[in-house]
Specification:
The chain is about 50% helix and about 15% strand. It is an alpha/beta fold. α5 crosses α7, α14 runs antiparallel to α16 and α16 runs parallel beside α21. The two termini are about 30 Å apart.
Length: about 625
C-alpha cells in the first residue's frame, strides 16, 4: 500500500502512546515498538546528575503543554522531549509503509481548548509529522463502535468513559454529519495514576516521598495489570526486599476511583441536560477500563450496565483512523439529498391542487335569491376544506427551504444550526399555511358577501391537528432530539399520489354536483361523481396506510363507500375525512420517524456543548 492510501492515527495517553495504520480497503495495522503495542509517553530527562526517576527530571509527555512539564535545571527543550514518542511512531510508520505517511490523525481529549490543541500540533510538527488532524477521543471511540457493527442511529445519545491515567466522561449525540460532544467532564484523580499511588502506598507506606514512589512506579503499574487476572503477584522494589501484592489491595485501591468515575458519569449526563434513561449505551475505554469494580460502580449509579470495549486501550486510535474515511457499509447517512425535481414536485403539487380547488369552489358556488331578501350561497365545504389542507401541505413541504432563507438573513446564531433552520422553517410554514387558509376564508366571504365565521371554521379547524403536530416536529428539531432517517425534507413532503387522487376526486364530485344536467349527459355526470368518490376513497387509504398489501385490501371497500355516498350534503363530510386522513398521516410520521423510530432510540435535547476539565492533564 502506498503512503497516499495510508492513514496514521496516534493516541498519546498519559502513560503510553498507541498508533494504528489504516488503509482505504479497511485493513489496519497496530504499530509495535520492541514487541510492545505502545511506546512510553512520559520520558525521563536526567538533569545535573539527578536520577532519571526523580520527579524533577520527568516530562509528562505530549498531552501536557510546555508549562505543565518540568524540565528540571537542565534547561532542556520540553517540546523536543515531548515529541520523542511521536517521532518514534513516525519512524515506525514510515518503515511499515515504505515512505512518510501524509494523512495523520492525533487523538486529543474532548475537553481540550485552543492552547492545548496548539501544543499538540507543535509537538507533532517537532516530531516531523505533517499537519495532523486532531480527533476528539470520544468521537474516535464512537466512530470505532460504528465500524464494529454497533447500531447508533442518528439522534441517539451515548456515553464514553475514557479511563486511563485520569478519567474523561463524555456524552455524545450522533448528528447528521457525525458525532457531536454535548458535555465532557475530566478528573485526573479518577484513573490509573490514582490507583498506582494508592497501591504504592499500600506496598511501601503512605509516608514515602515522591521520589521513592516514582522509582517504584513501573513495578506498581505492572503489578496492577497482573492483579486483574492473578490473585497475587510479587513486586520487586529498589533497595528493599520484594513484597507481595494481592487482589484485595487492588480492590481497595480501585474502589474509590471506580466510585468517582460513576459519579462523573452522572454529572456529565446531567450537564448535557439528559436523563440516564435517555442513553443508548455507556461504553468504557482506556487502559484502566478493565479494572475490577468499575463496571459495577457505573451500573449501580446509573442503572445501566456499561460495555467495556475489547482492547480498550487501542479503541481511540483505531476509531481516529476511520474518522472521515469513506464507509458506506456501516455508517447510516441521515440527510439523503432530495432531487430538485422531487422537492419541487412536493411543493408544487399540493400548491397547485389548493389553487385549483379554491378556484373551482368559487366559480361553481350556487347563489340563491340574488334579487330577493333570502340571499344564500351553496358552497362545497369539503372542497373548501381540502383547499386549505393542500395549502398547508404545500407550505410544510417548503419548510426546509423557508428555514434556510430565514437563517441566511437572521442575526441569531441558533437559527443557523441544522435544528434551528428546520424548526424556524416548520413554524414559518405553519404560520404561512394558516394565513393562506384564513385568506381563503376572508376572500370567499367577501366575494359572496357572506359572514366570515363559517368560512373560517371550515378553513382553520380541519388544519388544526396537522398544525399542532407540525409544531411538535419544530420543537423536536429545535432541541435536536431526533434527525429523521432520510432528512427533514423527505419527512415534510406529503404523499404526492394521495394529493393528486384527492384533488381529482373532489374536482369530479363538485363537477357532478354543479354541472348543467342536460338529458344526454346526466349518466356521464353521475358516473363522474362516483369516480370522484372512488378516487377520494383511494386517496384516504394512501394517506393512512403505507404497506401496499393493506392499501389494496382497504382501498376497494372504502372507495365503494365513498362513491355510494357522494351527494351535496356528504361533500363536506368527505373533505373533513380527508383532512383527518392527512392528520393521521402526520401523526404516524411523527411517531414512527421521530418519537419512536425503529430501532428505538432515546430522546433528549442537546442544548449545547458543555466542557469542564477538573485537572490540568484532562483524561488519560
Amino acid at each position: 500500500m502506498g503512503a497516499g492510501e495510508a492513514r496514521l492515527s496516534i493516541d498519546c495517553g498519559s502513560a503510553g502512546t498507541q498508533a494504528v495504520l489504516a488503509w482505504a480497503d479497511g485493513s489496519a495495522h497496530v504499530l509495535t515498538f520492541d514487541g510492545n503495542p505502545a511506546v512510553p509517553s512520559a520520558p525521563h530527562m536526567p538533569a545535573n546528575g539527578q536520577a532519571a526517576g526523580q520527579p524533577a527530571a520527568f516530562i509528562p509527555g505530549p498531552r501536557h503543554p510546555m508549562e505543565d512539564a518540568t524540565a528540571g535545571d537542565a534547561g532542556g527543550d520540553a517540546l523536543e522531549v515531548a515529541a520523542s514518542p511521536l517521532r518514534r511512531v513516525a519512524a515506525e510508520a514510515e518503515r511499515v509503509v515504505g515512505q512518510p505517511v501524509r494523512d495523520v490523525r492525533v487523538v486529543v481529549p474532548a475537553g481540550w481548548g485552543p492552547r492545548r490543541r496548539t501544543w499538540m500540533r507543535q509537538v507533532a510538527h517537532r516530531a516531523g509529522l505533517p499537519q495532523p488532524r486532531l480527533v476528539e477521543a470520544p468521537v474516535a471511540v464512537a466512530e470505532y463502535l460504528l465500524t464494529t457493527g454497533v447500531r447508533v442511529p442518528v439522534g441517539a445519545f451515548l456515553v464514553v468513559c475514557d479511563v486511563g491515567a485520569g478519567a474523561e466522561v463524555t456524552v455524545l449525540r450522533r448528528g447528521p454529519a457525525g458525532f457531536e460532544v454535548l458535555a465532557t467532564l475530566a478528573d485526573a484523580a479518577a484513573g490509573g495514576t490514582a490507583i498506582d499511588h494508592a497501591l504504592a502506598d499500600a506496598l511501601i507506606g503512605a509516608s514515602t516521598g515522591e521520589g521513592q514512589r516514582a522509582s517504584v512506579a513501573d513495578s506498581v503499574r505492572v503489578a496492577k495489570e497482573a492483579l486483574v487476572s492473578h490473585p497475587a503477584v510479587t513486586v520487586p522494589l529498589p533497595d528493599r526486599p520484594p513484597v507481595i501484592a494481592n487482589s484485595a489491595m487492588l480492590d481497595e485501591a480501585v474502589r474509590p476511583v471506580a466510585w468517582r468515575v460513576a459519579q462523573l458519569t452522572q454529572e456529565t449526563v446531567a450537564a448535557a441536560e439528559l436523563t440516564l434513561g435517555d442513553l443508548a449505551g455507556i461504553y468504557c475505554v482506556g487502559g484502566s477500563a478493565q479494572l475490577p469494580h468499575l463496571a459495577a460502580a457505573i451500573a449501580e449509579h446509573t442503572g445501566t450496565a456499561p460495555i467495556v470495549v475489547p482492547e480498550p486501550a487501542l479503541v481511540a486510535a483505531r476509531g481516529a483512523a476511520d474518522v472521515g474515511a469513506v464507509d458506506t457499509a456501516t455508517v447510516e447517512r441521515v440527510e439523503v439529498p432530495v432531487p430538485p425535481v422531487r422537492r419541487a414536485a412536493a411543493i408544487a403539487v399540493p400548491g397547485f391542487a389548493s389553487l385549483a380547488l379554491i378556484w373551482q369552489c368559487l366559480l361553481t358556488a350556487e347563489r340563491h335569491g340574488t334579487l330577493g331578501v333570502y340571499y344564500s350561497v351553496s358552497v362545497n365545504w369539503g372542497e373548501f376544506t381540502m383547499a386549505a389542507v393542500m395549502a398547508l401541505l404545500a407550505c410544510l413541504a417548503a419548510g426546509t427551504v423557508l428555514g434556510s432563507l430565514i437563517a441566511a438573513r437572521s442575526p441569531t446564531p441558533g437559527t443557523r444550526t441544522e435544528g434551528g433552520r428546520v424548526s424556524v422553517g416548520i413554524l414559518a410554514a405553519v404560520s404561512l399555511g394558516a394565513a393562506i387558509a384564513g385568506l381563503y376564508a376572508v376572500v370567499t366571504s367577501q366575494y359572496f358577501g357572506m359572514p366570515v365565521g363559517p368560512y373560517l371554521k371550515w378553513a382553520l379547524w380541519p388544519i388544526a391537528p396537522v398544525s399542532v403536530m407540525a409544531v411538535a416536529m419544530a420543537v423536536v428539531a429545535a432541541r435536536q432530539w431526533r434527525a429523521p432517517h432520510g432528512g427533514w425534507s423527505a419527512l415534510l413532503a406529503a404523499p404526492t399520489g394521495s394529493i393528486v387522487a384527492a384533488t381529482l376526486g373532489m374536482g369530479l364530485i363538485q363537477y357532478s354536483l354543479t354541472a348543467d344536467r342536460w338529458p344526454d349527459r346526466i349518466l356521464w355526470i353521475d358516473i363522474a361523481g362516483r369516480v370522484g368518490g372512488l378516487l377520494l376513497g383511494v386517496a384516504v387509504v394512501m394517506a393512512v396506510v403505507t404497506p401496499l398489501m393493506f392499501r389494496l385490501i382497504l382501498a376497494a371497500p372504502l372507495a365503494v363507500i365513498f362513491a355510494a355516498i357522494v351527494s351535496r350534503r356528504a361533500a363536506g363530510m368527505l373533505g373533513v375525512i380527508y383532512a383527518i386522513a392527512v392528520a393521521t398521516w402526520w401523526a404516524t410520521r411523527l411517531w414512527s420517524r421521530v418519537l419512536r423510530p425503529a430501532p428505538p432510540t432515546p430522546t433528549a435535547p442537546p442544548t449545547g456543548r458543555v466542557r469542564a476539565d477538573l485537572s490540568p492533564g484532562g483524561g488519560g
